[in-house]
Amino acid sequence: MIKLDPQWHYAESPGRQHYLLKAKLGRHVIGRAHGWYAAQDRFVIEKIEIDRAHRSQGHGKTMIAALLAYARSQQCEQLAFTGVMRKNEGAIRLYRTLGAEAGPYSNERCDFVLRLA
């Protein structure tokens, strides 16, 4: 079973508070999620990735559950997955099963938004 690193890595840049969540299996990092707070009470996930050998085992869903809980605790109204590749069928299927809605595609990428309120 994976363990989420309880020490979320944090950094600031102009206008953004960045967070990095790591998923570990034993001592090995097998997944990462990077995001930040955006305007209008939105938490943006720029990247969520699971190492290829560990995909389709529920680890992405576990990480997203932690991100959702954190976003809700910060009174965010939306969780957005940005820059999702059109060909990334596994991620798209996961986001849709969670209730996320797709925005328009542009250049093979799309954003998915999950409303929390």
Structure, briefly:
With 117 residues, the chain is of the alpha+beta class. The chain has helices at residues 59-73, 89-97, and strands spanning 3-4, 9-13, 16-25, 28-38, 42-50, 78-85, 101-102, 109-115. Strands 1, 2, 3, 4, 5, 6, 7 and 8 form an eight-stranded mixed beta sheet that branches.
Structural commentary:
The chain is of the alpha+beta class and 117 residues long. It is globular and about 35 Å long. The longest helix has 15 residues, at 59-73. It contains two helices and eight strands; from the N terminus they run E-E-E-E-E-H-E-H-E-E. Strands 1, 2, 3, 4, 5, 6, 7 and 8 form an eight-stranded mixed β-sheet that branches. The chain has a single domain (3-115), classed as Aminopeptidase, CATH 3.40.630. The mean pLDDT is 85. The N and C termini lie far apart (30 Å). The protein has helices spanning 59-73, 89-97, and strands at 3-4, 9-13, 16-25, 28-38, 42-50, 78-85, 101-102, 109-115. Strand 5, helix 1 (59-73) and strand 6 (78-85) form a beta-alpha-beta unit. Helices cover 21% and strands 46% of the residues.
